[in-house]
Amino acid sequence: MLTVLAVLMVVGLPILAVSALLVATEALGRRRARRVAVQIRLTDAVHRELGAIVAPLVTRRWRAWRVQMALAPEHRWAASHLLALAEQVLAGESRAPVQVVLSRAAGR
Could you report the per-residue pLDDT of 14-69, keeping only the tens digit for each? Predict the structure, then answer.
């Protein structure tokens, strides 16, 4: 009986380890795909409303969404509208907090 159990452990452990790695990889892939989809939706919303003035970068950390946008000084007027768009697009994703970071775009 002990030998059968030992054989099952030797054969089963690598299969379980590989299965666990595949499940973890799939979960990470779904998480990345969701983040990319949110970034595309936000970019489309910004470009539809204001034109191509910024390219948002969306990340997710500890259940909080973070949006980074580099805004040129001549487009400062759009800052409040960008904040509202980010809140609007990300509000549909979850009740997670949203952090929007507006920085100054590098000179041309």
Answer: 899 999 999 999 999 998 998 899 899 999 999 998 888 888 999 988 888 889 99
DSSP string covering 16-85:
HHHHHHHHHHHHHHHHHHHHHHHHHHHHHHHHHHH-SS---EEEEETTEEEEEEEE-GGGGGGHHHHHHH
The tokens describing 99, both together, are 């952090």
pTM, 2 dp? 0.74
The H-or-E segment that residue 102 falls in is strand 98-104
Sequence letter at residue 13: L
Tokens of 67: 């949006």
Terminal-to-terminal C-alpha distance of the chain: 75
CA distance linking residue 65 with residue 1, whole number of Å: 53
